[in-house]
Each structure stands twice: as C-alpha cells, then as structure tokens.
Amino acid sequence: MDFQLPNLTRRDFLAKSSLGAGMILGAPSILKASAPGAPADEIRVGFIGCGKQHEVLFNAMVNIPGIRYVAACDIMKDRLGRTFGAIKSRFGYSIKRYLDAADMLEKEELDAVFVATPDFWHAPHTVMALEAGCDVYCEKMMSNTIEGARSMVAAMDKTGKLCQIGHQRRSNPRYRYTLNELILKEKICGQLINMNGQWNRALSSSQDIVSKPSILPDADTLRRAGFNTGADKELSLEELRHRFLNWRFYKDLSGGPISDLGAHQIDIFNWFMGSQPTSLQASGGRSYFKDREHFDNVMCIFDYDTPQGSARAFYQVLTTTSAGGGYFESFMGTEGTIEISEREAYSNIYKESGADNAKWDKLVQRGLLKKEAAGVAAGGSDAIASYESAPPDQYALPGGLSKAPHQPHIENFLSTIRGEAKLTCDARHALESEAPIYWVNEAAETRETIHFTEEHLHT
Ligand SMILES: NC(=O)c1ccc[n+]([C@@H]2O[C@H](COP(=O)([O-])OP(=O)(O)OC[C@H]3O[C@@H](n4cnc5c(N)ncnc54)[C@H](O)[C@@H]3O)[C@@H](O)[C@H]2O)c1
C-alpha cells in the first residue's frame, strides 16, 4: 500500500517541531502560509509604531532566529525609513511600508504584530490586529483607559489569538528566580509585610526641538491619528506637533508618569503578591512642569490582604530628580529584604540579624545566593548607635542576564506562538495587575481613599 505523507500545514509543522523538542505547553497559533522558499516555521512579523521603543524591541529581536520581517507601519515616513533601512542592512531584504495600520493588516499575511504606538492607540491597534488573525505583542501600559485595556482582553478571548503585554520583567530570569525560588520556595523574606518601589528620573523639558521639523507629520495626518483628541478646539499644526512629540503629557493620550513608569513596578508588586490590592491612597502634584496635564510627581500606598496578614506597598514616581537610587522594587519581610531592579546594579538582598543563619548559609553553599563582603550594608566603619538594630548582612543574586532586557519576553511570545511555552504576561494577567494603576491619578486628584471593588478591578 502506498504511504502518503500528510500535507503538513505550518501549524502542524510547528506542533511536530515542538514534539521534537519534547514539550508542548500550549496549542501553537495558526501561522499564515509562508512565502515561497521561506522556512515553514518562520514567524511573519509586522510592526505598528516605529518610534523609540520599537527600536529597543527590534534590537532585542535581531538575534532571535525564525523571524521574517514583513511590514511596518508608522504615520511618520522618516521612522518607517529607519526601520526599513535597519532590516535591509541587517538581513538583506526589503519590508513593505505603511502609513495606516488597517491597510497593513488587510494587505499583508502576518502571524505576529508588535504594537509600540502611544498608549491611546494600543487598544485600537491591538484589537484590530487580533481581529485580523494575528498574535500581538503590545507594549505596556495596555491602554490609557481601563476600558481600553478591557477591550483588549475581550478581543483576545473572542479571537483566541495570543496577546502578550510588554511587562518584560515577567520573563526576566532574575525576576522569575527571585519570585519562584527565593520568595515562594525558600521563603527567605519570612512574612512579607512591606513593599517599596520607585522610579526617580528627571525628565528634560518637552521634546519639541526636532532638528528637521519637515520630517514630522502634517496637520491632517496628526488629526486623523487622533492627536486632536480631548482638545476643545481645532489645534494648530504647532499644537498638534507638540502633542505628537509629547503625548505622555496629555490626559487623553496617556496615563502620565504613574502609568508610564509606575506600571513597571506596580506590576511587580501585584505579580509577586499574587493578588490585587484592597485599597489605594495617593497624592500628586504639578509641582514644577506647569504646562503638563499629568502630575509630575506622584506617591501612593496600596494595601493588601495576604494569608499571613495585611501588607502594604509604597510607590513613588518623581520626574524632577534622578537621585535616590533610580528604579527598583523592594520586598521587605521579617527575615529578609529583596531589592530588585531591571538594572542588576540596583539589586540587593539583606538578611535580618534574627534570621536563621544556617538556612542562609546553606543557600549560599547551594549557589542560590552570593554573600557580599562584610560591612557593605553596615556602612563601613561607622559605629552603630545603641538605638539602632544590627545592620542586615548583604547578599546578591547569582548570575545576570546576558541578553537585552526585552529579549526573554519576546522569546516567550514567539515560543508560545510555536506551542513551546505559555505566555508569561497575557492580556488578562496584565490587566489583573495593571487595573489598580488606572485609579491612582483619580485617587491623587480627589485625595480620597479608594476601597477597591470588583467594579474597579475586573478584567
Ligand atoms: N516596556 C518598556 O520598557 C517600555 C519603554 C519605553 C516605552 N514603552 C512603551 O512603548 C510605547 C511607545 O513609546 P515610545 O517611547 O516609542 O514613543 P514614540 O513617540 O517614540 O513612538 C511612537 C511611534 O508611534 C507612531 N504613531 C503614532 N500614532 C500612530 C498611528 N496611529 N499609527 C501608526 N503609528 C503611529 C509615532 O509616529 C511614533 O513613531 C508606549 O506605549 C510606551 O509606554 C515601553
């Protein structure tokens, strides 16, 4: 009897490749027909938004095999040209360029789309791409509104496509190791009672100074792209360009610093706690940048109920100072504190003097922790006053990330498309964690405590 090979679709091929690798963690996404001569398991990628973060993502992708760059879209021709040139010089082939995302999605056969537009475009672009049958990697904050973020979760559910949100720390091996091994398994912090996080970054004044204003989009393009949104009049070209270049300053275009920067760390609080907070208090001010609609500094406190007892997190985002240690999140328990950051230099671990020495020594022997030289945390030779507690011993995490910080998150997305992994931050989990952030500006504006209900936090 003749034995006929089945006609393998790219999806079947991917599933079989995964079997070869000995693991299937999720059903592979259905990939579109590949270009003649192209490997069957190549993922056909398109970009929406080719600004600064797009460059970061692209540079984190270039060493990942199995990607075919197909098309890019931006309302700014110059930025499209830069992406086109970068792909041509690195990979030797041309991509298609589009000024309109719907046009690109209609004309191109794409498997995966990376969205890195301003926050107010994330929901429309993501929903559009999911509905066009693509898997989507969308930058954080999911949206400038919680309704926008919810529409992304609904579109992910409705289409059955993948939607990864760009909280890249969720795939960072140091973060995953810290949560899974040190906090959950070894419980080195003891009872976690406090968290503390910050992003202190002095932002220069607005970014209007462009060497060649002629490369900026014209007024019609900017109006069509929604940069007039929220204004009570028809804006001039100059005003539209100011909003285009400084969309982070405007309430209808972004959530301001608490969502732009705070999203990274408040996400980590909620991810590590494995729960949403129960209440929120906040204060903020337009203390220096009077022309910005958003607060230029915000401080907030979240309360949590945990099986061990109550816990609380303090977070601040300051845009007028870079002092005070940059950006990090601290998890402070009765036996130890883990201070972690995407920047390895800001990461530290402290053992309380009352914690079990033998347990910590064993972790060092097993290579799970590195002991720092004595006196690092004690502040050198300074004498300890009688009213102070003994200084904690200082430790470090072993190993570091040898890749660009965004690469593991993109790899996780692409591996999930192939059926070899599970998304580390799909839209639903991202929104569970982001939901409290959407309420911070309101809490700071009203100075009233928000006691979270299902209505505030549902996905
Ligand atoms: N994960 C991270 O660490 C990280 C870091 C920085 C920024 N981001 C996120 O990345 C996103 C982009 O930020 P950025 O700093 O690159 O901003 P940007 O202004 O530099 O880039 C946005 C790009 O989108 C284009 N654009 C605007 N409207 C468009 C439309 N309707 N269609 C197509 N293109 C459009 C603009 O021309 C621009 O090129 C933001 O959501 C931001 O929060 C994430």
Our Rg estimate from Cα atoms comes to 24 Å
What's the mean pLDDT score?
A: 89
CATH class of the largest domain: Alpha Beta
CATH architecture heading of the largest domain: 2-Layer Sandwich
The end-to-end distance, rounded to whole angstroms, is 55 Å
The bound ligands are: nicotinamide-adenine-dinucleotide
The tally of helices reads 16
| CATH homology superfamily name of the largest domain | Dihydrodipicolinate Reductase, domain 2
Biggest sheet layout: 10 strands, mixed
Question: What does this molecule look like?
Answer:
With 459 residues, the chain is α/β, with parallel strands linked by helices. The chain folds into 3 domains: 159 residues, NAD(P)-binding Rossmann-like Domain (Rossmann fold), CATH 3.40.50; 216 residues, Dihydrodipicolinate Reductase, domain 2, CATH 3.30.360.10; 33 residues, no CATH class. 33% of the residues lie in helices and 19% in strands. A hairpin with a 2-residue loop joins strand 9 and strand 10. The radius of gyration is 24 Å and the shape is globular. The N terminus is likely disordered. It binds nicotinamide-adenine-dinucleotide. Nicotinamide-adenine-dinucleotide binds next to helix 2 and helix 5. The site of nicotinamide-adenine-dinucleotide has 25 residues, from helix 2 and helix 5.
Summed up, what is this model?
The protein has 459 residues and is of the alpha/beta class.
